[in-house]
Amino acid sequence: MSSLPEKYNSQEVEKKWQETWDKTQVYAYNNEEGRESTFSIDTPPPTVSGLLHMGHIFSYTQTDFIARYQRMKGMNVFYPMGFDDNGLPTERLVEKVKGVRAGKMPRADFIKICEEVVEESEQEFRALFKEIALSVDWTQEYQTISKHSRKISQMSFIDLFNKDLAYRKFSPTFWDPVDRTAIAQAEIEDKERKGYMNDIAFSTANGEEVIIATTRPELIPACVAVFYNPLDGRYAHLAGKKAITPIFNHEVSIIADESVNPEKGTGLVMCCTFGDIQDIEWWKKHNLTTKECISLDGKMVNSGKYDGLKVEETKKQIIEDLKTLGLLRKQEEVTQFVKCAERSGAPLEIIPTHQWYVTLLSHKDALIEKGRACNWYPDYMRVRLENWINGLNQDWCISRQRFFGVPFPAWYSKRSGEEGKILLADIDQLPVDPLTDLPKGYTRKEVEPDYDVMDTWATSSISPQLNTSAITRSLAIDYDRHQKLYPFDLRPQAHEIIRTWGFYTIVKSLFHEDSIPWKNLMISGWCLARDKTKMSKSKGNVVTPKELIIEKGSDVVRYWASTSKLGVDTAYSEELFKIGRKLVNKLWNASKFAGFHFAKLDGNQPTFPQEDINNGKIFESLDLWILSELHKTIEGATAEFDKFEYSDARVIIEDFFWNAFCDNYLELVKARAYDETKLNPKGQMSAVYTIYHCLKHILILFAPLLPHITEEINHHIFSGKSLHKRGSWPKLENHYFKEKLYAQGAVALQVLELVRKFKSERNLSLRVPLKLVEWSGADLDSSVLNDLRLAANASEFKYNRALNNSSLSSLDGKYSIYAEIEQHDDERI
């Protein structure tokens, strides 16, 4: 044992232990062990977008609390880190930092630049995660664009295709004209904006005027029908007739359909290919023709003089032309919700294109069942998944018209007699790039490669399989490893990606092995700015995590992360950082005080509380009381950590440290521990042994949350193995609990509190001696009585059952005391 330095230097200590843990590989996963001793974590692979933000510290640190706890509990923890480094976020980052445009340079050159930028960004993430002390096994790192990930992703696609769960189709697709790619339903956001409802005059073939209400007049050139509700008497006479569109003079059918809302607008609505999902449904149901008027770059086509104009420009121009022609009957400002791309923010168009899809709509019930087979923490988050599944109205579009992504292992035959036949790579060819590779048995002239890449979620959704190196038993690199990790024990993730990462991973697990991907989900909230709004650069309320760690210290920042409960958004709070700093300082100072007494052990090494009690080394009642409190604390913290409720575990541990141990126990036994009179050497050693056990276990209990300071104190005072090695978490069978002594301690605390209150109300120092203290409420044994007398600095301390309750009383009125101050004139108070 050695004494602690006078002051704690967090920057120096934290860096030292981070390097030590990395060098000693204390977090290494052992691939040789079986499933029963393994705890596997499906860690979120952060998106490589060039932005390190507080959310990365917030949610990833919360996962680390559980990883450290499970490792200390004795589990072989598989805790990897991945990087989601392909897809649109990476392409945007590259275009921004390199000043290039993906579509205006050779594809191979752009991909090479992406790979260079990705490596630089990932290094920043690694540094941040190490500085915040994530106990990740970095030998298990993966990238979603690596050769290994491409192979597993292409295996996944081939498995889905062979099971008739993946298909290619030319159909209306949500299209982002800014990023020039199709997107899936999960990547769509409804944004509120102001628009105009326009009443526009169409006419029937025989010249009757009919008024159509629309917010999208620019789609008139794509109008293929006019609909009304069959119960709407205003328009029954139009059945079977034709309408003539204004400006373009196209003849379209007038059709009755019960899905038309007669109360909306004029009750007449045009169907355009394609304005919204309803247009698609009418188009399919009534076998309508297709007229496209918007190109993939968001400009008008097949619209006469409007060709080449952007959509918004066309809308304004058509309104002006309708006014000129006297065909705009009314215009009213309305609030509308527009479907926009989640990433670019651009309003979406629905354009028919060839895309790859994964079948979802016919599997809703099975997906809900798999979601319910997982344990959700908190449980109400499961409802978000079920609401999303129930609201699905389209299959999952997994193809993207981009560049830096996993290519589909597919070609299309040009051979005579099999034109358009889909050709897939053989498993032993994977990973393949159809732009440079060929299907077996075909020449370059006989095939057309698939130019698309997979949606990044199509790869991220198999993050468990990327780690296990297998899709199924027959599609595997290492199926033995797969069985040791899968299903994973824990999926930690934020609530906003339940509909994407959470949902899609369940989809893949259901389709590949009819399994759940993980046993438990731990859902985190957002990190908000001080004003409880989302942090954003535009608002100027972003806090940089790297600078914060330098300023506050890693353990203090980790403490802040531990104050948020699962599923709950938490605001950045300087007050919480102050509390964290106070805790770190208190741990250091309390350890210095406790360590002072350990020299009295004179080489005697305490074992476990229960064993030292059995051997007679610990016997005083208040010592047994605090060890009973410690037992309850270990039991409670363990139960909360097992439920992934790290915040509730912290509250239990802090309460023991601040209240039971520091404020009360140390105060009650201080005199006995010092024993300057040398009248009770055995009692003194009982206290020293007890302080030893309490402090050591306080460090262990705090270790998952505050790894640096606990390791530093443990190293100096206890000189033992790292707190973060497997199996260091306390086992209850080694700890003591007795209800009677637990109750004795509670009484002693009430009496001590009354003594403090007595002195405080008279503006007396706690050191002022008392001549006499009497109390009523419950008797105490002689051991407790002696510690209380010394703590109260009283000459006489005794129980008086008949004490008048009009004396100074506790808040609940159960306990009362009477006291006299030690004065020369013997004045009674």
UniProtKB/TrEMBL annotation:
It catalyses: tRNA(Val) + L-valine + ATP = L-valyl-tRNA(Val) + AMP + diphosphate. Residues 623-772 form the Methionyl/Valyl/Leucyl/Isoleucyl-tRNA synthetase anticodon-binding domain. GO terms for molecular function: aminoacyl-tRNA deacylase activity; ATP binding; valine-tRNA ligase activity. A motif ('KMSKS' region) lies at residues 534-538. GO terms for cellular component: cytosol. It comes from the Bacteria. Pfam families: Anticodon_1, tRNA-synt_1. A motif ('HIGH' region) lies at residues 46-56. InterPro entries: aa-tRNA-synth_I_CS, aa-tRNA-synth_Ia, Anticodon_Ia_Val, M/V/L/I-tRNA-synth_anticd-bd, Rossmann-like_a/b/a_fold, tRNAsynth_Ia_anticodon-bd, Val/Leu/Ile-tRNA-synth_edit, Valine-tRNA_ligase_type_2. ATP binds at residue 537. HAMAP family: Val_tRNA_synth_type2. Belongs to the class-I aminoacyl-tRNA synthetase family. ValS type 2 subfamily. ValRS has two distinct active sites: one for aminoacylation and one for editing. The misactivated threonine is translocated from the active site to the editing site. Catalyzes the attachment of valine to tRNA(Val). As ValRS can inadvertently accommodate and process structurally similar amino acids such as threonine, to avoid such errors, it has a 'posttransfer' editing activity that hydrolyzes mischarged Thr-tRNA(Val) in a tRNA-dependent manner. This is Valine--tRNA ligase. It comes from Candidatus Jidaibacter acanthamoebae.
